[in-house]
Amino acid sequence: MIIWLNGAFGAGKTTAAHELLHLLPGSTLFEPERVGDQLRGMLPKERLAQVDDYQDLPSWRSLVVNTASALLAELPGPLITPMSLLSQAYRDEIFGGLAARRIPVRHFLLQTEETFLRARIDQRAAIDGDAVRTRYLARLPQYDAALPWLAGDAHPVAASQLTPRQTAEALAEGIRRGDGACTIVQTAPPRGETLAAGVLFFDAEGRVLLVDPTYKPGWEFPGGVVEPGEEPTSAAAREVAEELGLRLAGEPTPLVVDWEPPHPPGFGGVRLLFDGGLLPADRVADLLLPGAELRGWRFASEAEAEHLLSADRFARLQGALRARALGHPLYLERGRVITGPTTAR
Q: Chain-wide mean pLDDT for the chain?
């Protein structure tokens, strides 16, 4: 099990984690910041210059999951992890990766009023220098921006007027009660190229339905991986029924076949998109969301989808919209429509 202590920089996560070690037999401190330090020492400066923070490195997020998994293979656990994780996309990637390895996560938010937080930052700066104060204060806006989703995802612990020991005792009591449990779908990571099928639904304004998974970053199309021996159309119908409670009236119309190259650690594969047609308002009202798999849904215009989808998914959507307008399916590679050879002169 992972006990993830989240909060603002300077909220006292690490000191509380050290106290918590004494209250949870078998527990071990796991600091993902050390993984970041190692990457800083190994990656060339040209690569580091491309990111604002080591958390922006896909290798860091992957190593956090793999390191935690390796530690729990050696130790009884739990791992106590004090780490500010303020990007919801990174939270989904890391927690989803842990869930895929059957590692449960307890997510706690140490809430500290700004007055107390600034006082703690000043105390830390008196020991470690003014650079610490500057760095922590500069990240306060990032924490404030993350609060809307953090408040709904992590179990709060009001730590403003608590000592590190009292904070640890409050955390230990919450852990015993089962607080902070993250119910995330435990989708096994692919071991090779996959075949996936998605369905596009549209509203009366022509906007497309997108969903927000809890176990991977970014928005997606309703759908999922085709199981061995399963027909893609059946897989598409099964996935939208499981995810949204929607039943397709018949076989969906194919829109695009897209080959996606591998993006380590992903293996790539073939992606199919089908046309689910117009979704009437009364059916929209009946949409269901499995909390362990999807956080939310929304209809998005093409312009809005460009900001919600990854580049490869957005290119696939553009191909699907073009196919829908033309009235016949298209074949894509890397999201680019393959038109075939021109007639020789």
A: 91
